[in-house]
């Protein structure tokens, strides 16, 4: 750890992560998806920071209940332009960890799974920027976007940007908890499973 912090070596967790992508995909292993959501201080991936991450694993056509991840990040710096809300600062009442620890836990959790989120490009750039602050590389996982899958299913034009709520309404999915990263991840996971079946993924 000391070598990493002084810039002399890559941390073991990052070596383990990148090694997962060196070989060929295991043909006989059931594909794992990780559906995730992030709370952030805003939508500028260069300036804003991640405040919470919620995620859950999917194999086959089912959410793996035990394959669950949630972390809240201690905010040493908060973008002044970001709107103040109870959602943004919910982590103040919960156990929090520093950004580096949160990223280590998340990377160890996702491994080489295909990452799924709504408007995933912004989430990935937020993650990449956080990794950059640790002098590490970029996320290597394959990615899928529930918004893109929805457009493909409905035959919508590329410039259509449906919200997750709109997709849930179309798929008749109950939106029980949309106020936390883990709640949003669960909702997105339900939407992904339905779209996965409809598109025969």
Architecture blueprint of SSEs:
Blueprint: H1 2-5, H2 12-19, E1 32-40, E2 50-59, E3 62-72, H3 99-110, E4 114-117, H4 120-133, E5 143-145, H5 146-154, H6 164-171, H7 181-198
Parallel strand pairs: 1-4, 4-5
Antiparallel strand pairs: 1-2, 2-3
Helix pairs in contact: 5-7, 6-7
Helical fraction equals 25-40%
Mean pLDDT, to the nearest integer, reads 85
Shape: globular
Q: Give the SSE string.
A: HHEEEHEHEHHH
How many beta-strand elements? 5
Radius of gyration: 17 Å
Descriptive report:
The protein is an alpha/beta fold and 201 residues long. The chain contains seven helices and five strands. It has a five-stranded mixed sheet with strand order 3-2-1-4-5, with helices on both faces. Strand 4 (114-117), helix 4 (120-133) and strand 5 (143-145) form a beta-alpha-beta unit. Helix 5 packs parallel to helix 7. The longest helix is centred in the last third of the chain and has 18 residues, at 181-198. The protein is globular, with a radius of gyration of 17 Å. The termini are far apart. Mean pLDDT is 85; it is low at 78-91.
């Amino acid at each position: 750890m000391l070598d990493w912090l002084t810039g002399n070596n890559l941390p073991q967790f990052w070596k383990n992560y990148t090694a997962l992508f060196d070989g060929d995909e295991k043909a006989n292993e059931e594909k794992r998806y990780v559906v995730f959501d992030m709370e952030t201080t805003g939508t500028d991936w260069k300036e804003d920071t991640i405040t919470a991450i919620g995620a859950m694993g999917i194999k086959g056509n089912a959410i793996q209940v035990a394959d669950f991840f949630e972390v809240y990040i201690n905010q040493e710096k908060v973008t002044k332009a970001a709107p103040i809300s109870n959602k943004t600062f919910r982590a103040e009442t919960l156990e929090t960890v520093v950004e580096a620890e949160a990223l280590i836990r998340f990377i160890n959790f996702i491994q080489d799974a295909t990452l799924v989120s709504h408007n995933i490009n912004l989430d990935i750039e937020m993650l990449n920027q956080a990794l950059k602050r640790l002098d590490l590389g970029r996320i290597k996982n394959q990615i899928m976007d529930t918004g893109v899958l929805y457009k493909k299913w409905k035959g919508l034009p590329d410039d259509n940007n449906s919200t997750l709520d709109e997709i849930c309404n179309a798929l008749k999915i109950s939106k029980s908890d949309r106020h936390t990263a883990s709640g949003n991840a669960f909702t997105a996971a339900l939407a992904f499973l339905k779209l996965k079946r409809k598109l025969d993924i």
